Structure formats: structure tokens, C-alpha cells
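Single Protein Entry

Contents — chain, fold
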Amino acid sequence: MATDGDVVVYAPTRTTSGLTIPVKITNNGDRRAIYQVDVRITGPGGFDATAQVKTTVVGLYPGTSWPTELTAKDPGKPVPEHPIVTIEKNTKQELRS
């Protein structure tokens, strides 16, 4: 699991071709906000993938959460049993009301 500000990334689950990564973004601020998050997953055998999520349209209202799942694949590389998950980028843009 990795945490950075309003973003929590939970332990990935393996699939036959990649990893499913649960992510939860909670706006702990006082204004609506748009988030862009890059999650990097690495592992033995050279597995190296980056998955991105961006909350668009109206943004997240204060006190609300947005759960989602990302998919990470690295064709030709073995899917790691114990991947290393890091949040590479976490950008929060507050919107004017």
C-alpha cells in the first residue's frame, strides 16, 4: 500500500496478464479538486509499468471519495507476485467555486 496526500493505493491483485491496482482518492480540502495520479509498479524479471488516473469533468467535491481500479501490464514480462507500488505523481488542482 502507498499513500500520498489524498491518494491511497492498495495492494494489487494478479491477473493472467497484469495487475489490478485499487486506488481511492478522497478530497480532504475545502474546494472541489481535479486529481492526476501516476502509479508505478515494478517487480522481478523486469516488470515495469505506469498506470494513470485523472478525475475530470466537475472534480471531486470536498469530503467525497472516488474509488477506482487501474490496470498495469508489461507485455513479455512475468507478472510479479510481490510488486513494488509507488505513487510517482500526485497533482491536485483546486477549482474555484
About this structure: The first strand starts at residue 2 and ends at 4. Residues 32 and 95 are 5 Å apart (CA to CA). The mean pLDDT is 93.
